[in-house]
Amino acid sequence: MKRYYKQGIAAKGHDGHEDGDSMLWAGLLLAAGETAQEDAILACQEETGEFKRAPSRVGVPSTNSFSRDMATGLTLGAASSGNVRHVYKRWIAYTLDNRCMACKDHDGRCFMTPGVYWWAHYMGIDVPFYYRWTAFLNRLYLFIACFINPPGYQLHLAGVSLFIQKKIGQWGYLERRAAAKLAKRQPANAFFQWLAGDTVKAKYLVEEVKHYIASEGQGRMHQWGWEREDAERAWKDSCGHDIVFMDLLLNEKQA
Description:
With 255 residues, this protein is mainly alpha-helical. The protein has helices at residues 22-32, 36-42, 68-80, 82-98, 114-122, 129-133, 137-148, 153-167, 173-185, 190-195, 199-216, 241-250; strands at 4-6, 9-11. It has a two-stranded antiparallel ribbon. The chain has twelve helices and two strands, in the order E-E-H-H-H-H-H-H-H-H-H-H-H-H. It has one domain.
């Protein structure tokens, strides 16, 4: 399975130059057991504590160098690695100190949602009192998101959020129900089937994708198949990282 990296972090495209989703993918791969992505994530932090989506963005003024998706991937990385959690603590402090200025080079949307601070609290990181006493709302919020988020990348982010819950030991009735709903809404999504506990179906779906790629090739190599609607069959243009991610999960090699 062909894959590309840019300065050590997961990249996409036929020449591996695209880093648009790198931090999210790195967090997913690290959580599944690809430990090399730990160093890649660490290399994305500025001296100020700020994070960029890829090492190549560090020290380079640019727009859209981070996003809510990247914040979710970074949080998953922190939930999976003590070293990442250490620098994640610095990032949380940076965002609290800089508030809206922390999003200054983004596309205008604030990526510091309450969920990030709720997760930080559950990982033992100091956050303002408001986020500490409202942290219980995170479970309800994610439960609802799995029912109402549109299929595709928004539903995938709900799945990644559930993965964070699993990593930090918040995996109870609501999370199991939410995972079951994801699997029902997108039955051809191997990641959602894994979250719901159906490893047999997840493995079947991955093997089906591998068979297609072995026969037809990887296409444009710019998609993480599990973040798209089933009907898109996005795995035809698999970046390769998504297949390796599922193989690691199914072999129980999570960090």
